[in-house]
Amino acid sequence: MQHLQAQTAQLQVQMRRLQAQNAQLLARRQAAPPQPAATPAVQRGQPARPVTAAARTQLRVAVPVVQNLTRQLTRNPAVRLTARPLAQIDRIIIHHSGAAPTVGAAQIANFMVNQRKQAGIPFHYFVTANGTLQQTNDLTIITAHSSPALNLVSVGVCFAGNFNRVPPSPAQIEAGARLAAWLIQKLNLSARAVFGHKELVQTQSPGLQWDSGANWGAQLRQKIQAYLTGAA
């Protein structure tokens, strides 16, 4: 019990630190002159175009091995969840947990329910530090992982860890790419429909290393493309 309390306290400290960093980033961006938007091709709030029927026939991404935690994680019965049709989804948003890589989906769910009084863990999928894939919400459930408008049309995928200084492990990137490629196939999305959260809203997630330093966002997209084309 003491070990769990210590981990919860650590998660609270890391969440507060991440919130402070996000506030600093927002202040700097508001003070700086606007810069031209870099790729991705799909801009904020713009739905991603689905692949054509001809391209769809080429997609043969195998179903990844995923642990289903949707019925095991802590939930807040006082918060009603809203369902959506899968056809409403037009993008995949990549997050980092902002905590130590050892902090898992169960701890995040407990924190969100007990400390934040939220519905539960806000992501649909969680990628652990060793590359294990876990489903944490049904795809038909609208969760609060991004802005209200984006929550309606997106799948939230969270990578365990804080990637401001270091990138995810190779196993995480590999597993995340396989998952994203399969979701693109399942949901009939464009290969360009994968975004880092910071590409859509004012935040540091999924870390500074997403688009600088290790540039793991580019690595992830290359691997996704390899899965979609059969090169992986």
Structure description:
The radius of gyration is 17 Å and the shape is globular. It has one domain (2-27, 57-229): Peptidoglycan recognition protein-like (Lysozyme-like), CATH 3.40.80. Residues 25-57 have low confidence and may be disordered. It contains 6 helices and 8 strands; from the N terminus they run H-H-E-E-E-H-E-E-E-H-E-H-E-H. Strand 4 (125-127) and strand 5 (133-135) form a beta hairpin. A 6-stranded mixed beta sheet has the order 1-5-4-7-3-8. It has a two-stranded antiparallel sheet with strand order 2-6. Helices cover 35% and strands 12% of the residues. By secondary structure, the chain is of the alpha/beta class.
Produce a short descriptive summary.
The chain is of the alpha/beta class and 232 residues long.
Rg over CA atoms, rounded to whole Å, is 17 Å
Please identify which CATH superfamily we are dealing with: Peptidoglycan recognition protein-like
Estimate the global geometry from the Cα principal axes: globular
CATH secondary-structure class: Alpha Beta
Approximate strand percentage: 5-15%
Number of domains: 1
The largest β sheet comes out as: 6 strands, mixed
CATH overall fold name: Lysozyme-like
- Class computed from helices, strands and strand pairing: alpha/beta
List segments where confidence is low: pLDDT < 50 over at least 5 consecutive residues: 25-57
Proportion of helical residues:
25-40%
| Count, helices | 6
**Helix/strand order, N-terminal first:** HHEEEHEEEHEHEH
CATH architecture: 3-Layer(aba) Sandwich
**Arrangement of strands in the largest sheet:** 1-5-4-7-3-8
Number of strands: 8
Mean pLDDT: 85
Q: State the distance separating the first and last CA atoms.
A: 43 Å
